[in-house]
Amino acid sequence: MKTILVPTEQHDFMASALQTALLLARKFDSYIEGFALFPAMVELYALDAAVPLPIEVREHDAEMAKQARSLFETFMDGHGVARSSKADGALSFDWLDGAPDGDAFVGSYGRVFDAVILGRPGAGRRSRPSMATIEAALFEAGRPVLIAPPTPPQRMGENILIAWNCSTEQARTTAFAMPLLQRASRVVVLTVQGGTVPGPTGEQLARYLARNGVPSEPFTVSPEGRSTGETILAHASALNCDLLVKGAYTQSRLRQMMFGGATRHLLGHATLPILMAH
Questions:
Q1: How far apart are CA 267 and CA 263, in angstroms?
Q2: pTM of the entire structure?
Q3: Strand partners, 92
Q4: How confident is the model at residue 259 (pLDDT cuts 50, 70, 90)?
Q5: Structure confidence at residue 41 (pLDDT)
Q6: How many other C-beta atoms lie within 10 A of the C-beta of residue 78?
Q7: Nearest to 23 by CA among 221, 242, 256
Q8: What is residue 213's three-state secondary structure?
Q9: Which residues are CB-neighbours of 49 under 8 A, at least 6 positions away?
Q10: How far apart are CA 93 and CA 212, in angstroms?
């Protein structure tokens, strides 16, 4: 993972997102690029020719963009990361000026990076990132999305939990995670009874991982009255895991919005970084 994109905003989890990005970047001597993320104006105001867009909103966003850039650059400078856009394979960072507003840019621009780092989704129409931001990255970038927890993590990728549900989405996410899995000290493959689709077992995944140089421990557990998402987080905590690898939206987004699902629960409650892909 040599290139990392960090859409940056004034958000409670911004420090955690930057710390998560740095932990990942240090493992691979990656290039980190940030840009200011804001909702598109059409997301906030009705298109009425008689009502111009408020000037104060544009001025407010410009000021917020300056603050986001300052926080991003101060963080990188303070952690000894050199500013450079050269493709020389060294740990470095840069800032993208003039990124267009809206979530669509996260999905399209993310296609030329190895990973996109985002904080957990916030509440409210102007909270960033929103679920729409997360979903734009997951569905449009074709790249893994690393979700930062509320509190900046101190370590990541040493003790990894794969939440195996036998699905295509989980297989794709596990493949994206392979560089991290190959560097981990411990890998656990967790299957929750009743939380799977037809497909290979956790033991079969463990054999695949072993052939790729990743020893792992497969476990199948009962939810014991909890949801699949609750069970995954409970075992991640009990095992002191520092990274969760989870395929996103095995169920449809509409079904998850109506009835809930593991993806929604993890995005709302996880306290460790989650590597996701669809």
A1: 6
A2: 0.89
A3: 31, 82
A4: very low
A5: 60
A6: 8
A7: 242
A8: coil
A9: none
A10: 31
Judged by DSSP in three states, 243 sits in: strand
Residue with tokens 């000026």: 97
Burial 222-257 (b: 16+ CB within 10 A, else e): ebeeebbbbbbbebbeebebbbbbbbbbbbebeebe
- Per the CB < 8 A criterion, the answer to whether 6 and 14 are in contact is no
Beta pairing, strands 145-148 & 217-221: unpaired
Running DSSP on this structure, what letter comes out for residue 242?
A: S
Evaluate if residue 189 carries a pLDDT over 90: yes
Q: Which of 229, 270, 274, 278 is nearest to 118 (CA)?
A: 274
Question: Which residue's entry shows tokens 């729409």?
Answer: 132
3-state helix, strand, coil in the chain (%, to 5): 40, 20, 40
Supply 222's token pair.
């009962």
Q: Please provide the DSSP assignment of 75-131 as one string.
A: HHHHTTPEE----SSSSEEEE--SPPSSTHHHHHHGGGSSEEEEEPP-SSTT-SS-H
Q: Which of helix, strand or coil describes residue 244? A: strand
Distance CA 59, CA 176 (A): 40
Residue 47: pLDDT band (50, 70, 90) is very low
Beta bridge partners of 148: 119
Give CA–CA dist 172/170, Å, rounded.
Answer: 5
CA distances from 78 to 20, 126, 181, 250, 275 (A): 15, 29, 29, 40, 26
- Residues 6 or more apart in contact with residue 181 via CB below 8 angstroms: 160, 162, 174, 187, 209, 212, 214, 216, 245
DSSP 93: E
Strand partners, 133: none
- Give one DSSP letter per residue of 158-175, joined into a string: SEEEEE--S-HHHHHHHH
φ, ψ (nearest 5 deg) of residue 190: -105, 125
